[in-house]
């Protein structure tokens, strides 16, 4: 597979899958991912499933690159028809309830439904947990590949939508940069004329006019935005090239946008205070910064 065939992944996604470890123990496993600078796994697993957690961490670190990922495992135990209960434990709960009621002068009897929901009362549930948890790890790990594939399918769909939005944004940015390029020559001349006029008002016959005009031309040249326009075009081409390449490009794109923002700021600093087309190129620079900021918000969610 070529680099160009790789999808661009968003860090936002959700996937859930259900399975069974045995006749009496079912489970559901879900992954919920949002953006994060690095891979941050947050595990929500029931007590007694530490071995499953270790294996899940290992596999997910191999398959995912970035994102805050919440991993949730829920167990669903079913009772057999011949389920029994711990007579001594039920008697102890009932006796404790009545003793507490008598001590505090309260009326009431213990509720049997509530008693049966207390830990360890239903003996079949306790036994099935101990037996079925042995096969839980194998059953869960069988489903992990399919679960990650489902998560990545959603993340790829989200990433493709983001990539299209950013491509459109880069087209708009290039249009504004091209507009600035068309205006730059007139802006440069306006800057030169302004400096020349100011210097003429400050000099008298003791200064060489040609030398002053040369210095004015040099200052005007330094105010030229041709370099910034060229760099911005190069960065835009690199940006869209990375989107086409796909894969783990979020950090690279973010760096390019920082460079674009720096060039736009330099362009604005060079054209501030110049009338006529200078005002128009300043407006173009502000338009550049707006498009760059939109792209920076979007790229934060890419892997």
Short synopsis of the structure:
With 303 residues, the chain is α+β, with helices and mostly antiparallel strands. It is 65% helix and 12% strand. α1 (50-63) runs parallel beside α4 and α6 runs antiparallel to α7 (250-271).
Secondary-structure map:
Blueprint lengths: L12 E8 L4 E10 L4 E6 L5 H14 L3 E11 L9 H18 L7 H5 L6 H80 L6 H14 L3 H20 L4 H22 L5 H23 L4
Helix pairs in contact: 1-4, 4-5, 4-6, 4-8, 6-7, 7-8
Essential attributes:
3 domains, alpha+beta, single chain, 4-stranded mixed sheet, 8 helices, 4 strands, 303 residues, 12% strand
Describe the 3D structure.
65% of the residues lie in helices and 12% in strands. It has 303 residues and is an alpha+beta fold. It folds into 3 domains: 3-81 and 135-154; 87-116; 158-299, Butyryl-CoA Dehydrogenase, subunit A, domain 3. It has a 4-stranded mixed sheet.
């Amino acid at each position: 597979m070529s680099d160009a065939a790789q999808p661009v992944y968003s860090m936002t996604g959700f996937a859930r899958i259900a399975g069974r470890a045995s006749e009496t123990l079912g489970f559901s496993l879900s992954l919920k991912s949002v953006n994060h600078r690095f891979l941050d796994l947050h595990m929500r697993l029931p007590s007694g499933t530490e071995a499953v957690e270790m294996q899940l961490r290992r596999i997910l670190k191999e398959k995912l690159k970035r994102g805050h990922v919440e991993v949730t495992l829920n167990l669903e135990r079913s009772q057999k028809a011949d389920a029994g209960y711990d007579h001594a434990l039920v008697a102890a709960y009932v006796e404790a309830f009545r003793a507490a009621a008598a001590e505090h002068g309260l009326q009431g009897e213990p509720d049997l439904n509530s008693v049966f929901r207390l830990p360890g009362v239903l003996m079949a549930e306790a036994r099935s947990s101990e037996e079925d948890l042995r096969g839980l790890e194998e059953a869960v790990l069988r489903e992990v590949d399919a679960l990650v594939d489902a998560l990545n399918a959603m993340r790829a769909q989200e990433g493709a939508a983001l990539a299209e939005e950013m491509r459109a944004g880069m087209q708009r940015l290039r249009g504004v940069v091209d507009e600035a390029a068309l205006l730059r020559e007139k802006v440069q001349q306006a800057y030169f004329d302004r400096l020349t006029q100011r210097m003429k008002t400050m000099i008298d016959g003791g200064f060489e006019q040609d030398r002053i005009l040369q210095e004015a031309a040099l200052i005007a040249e330094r105010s030229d935005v041709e370099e910034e326009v060229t760099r911005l075009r190069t960065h835009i081409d690199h940006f869209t090239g990375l989107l086409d390449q796909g894969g783990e490009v979020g950090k690279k794109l973010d760096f390019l946008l920082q460079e674009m923002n720096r060039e736009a700021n330099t362009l604005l600093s060079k054209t501030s205070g110049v009338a006529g087309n200078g005002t128009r190129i300043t407006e173009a620079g502000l338009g550049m910064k707006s498009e760059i900021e939109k792209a920076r918000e979007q790229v934060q969610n890419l892997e």
